[in-house]
Amino acid sequence: MYSIRTATRQDLDDARSVMLDTVYRDFGTGYVPRWHADIVDPAGAYLVPARHTLLVAADAAGRIVGTGAVDARGPQCPPNPRWLAERYPSGETAQLRRVYVRPEHRRRGIARELVARLAEFAAEEGGYRSLYLHTDPAVPGAEPFWRSLGEVVHDERADAGGGQGIVHFELPLRRAGARWAGAGV
Q: Most buried of 5, 58, 153, 167, CB within 10 angstroms?
C-alpha cells in the first residue's frame, strides 16, 4: 500500500535521493547542473514558488519511493524548437517534472496516480492552460507510459539530425475525481 502527499521539508532528502538515483541509473547522465538544479534545491524549485508543487509517494513503512512535480516553466528555446516554447509559454504552462518511481516499486500505479494528482493540482491552481512534459525515449518504459496518458506534440527523432531525441507531450488538465484508468494507489 502506498500513500501520496505534498512533500514537506522533512521529505526533501529522501525525494532528492529518488531523483538522483534516477538520473544516474535510468538516464545514465548523472547530475547535470543546467538540467537538474531543481534536484539539488527542491524547496526552492517546488515548495516555495506559488503554483509549483512536489508530491511524494511513500510505501507502508513511510519510505519515499516516488516523486512528481509541477512548475510554471514551459520548455525553453534553445534547446527546444522555438515553436514549442511559444506553444507552451512559461506562466501558462504547467510542466510535469521528476515523475520518478524506484524500480522495485514500479508497475503498481504509483506514477499514474502521481500524474493524476499533479494534473488536478494544475487544474485547480488556475492560470494554466496546458500540461506539458518531455521524456527521453531511451529510458525503459518512459515513452509507452506517457503515450498512455497524453498526446505526442513533437518527436525530435523525426527531425533532420534527430534533435536531442526527446519526445514532447501534452496531457489533459484534470479536475479532482477525473482520473485516468488504472489510477488509484
A: 167
Grid cell 531525441 is found at 165
What is the distance between the terminal CA atoms of the chain, rounded to a whole angstrom?
Answer: 7
Q: Is the pLDDT of residue 16 over 70?
A: yes
**C-alpha cell recorded at residue 175:** 479536475
Q: For cell 535510468, name the residue.
A: 26
Which whole number is the average pLDDT over 29-57?
94
pLDDT for position 75: 96
Give the pairing type, strands 93-101 and 3-6: unpaired
Which residue's C-alpha cell is 512536489?
54
Q: Which positions ≥6 away from 132 have C-beta within 8 Å?
A: 74, 75, 88, 93, 94, 95, 96, 168, 169, 170, 171
Residue 185's pLDDT is 62
Residue 147 grid cell? 503515450
DSSP secondary structure string for all residues of 102-120: -GGG-SSSHHHHHHHHHHH
CB atoms within 10 A of CB 184: 10
Cis peptide before 103 (omega within 30 of 0): no
Decide: pTM greater than 0.90. yes
* Contact criterion met (CB below 8 Å) for 166 and 156: yes
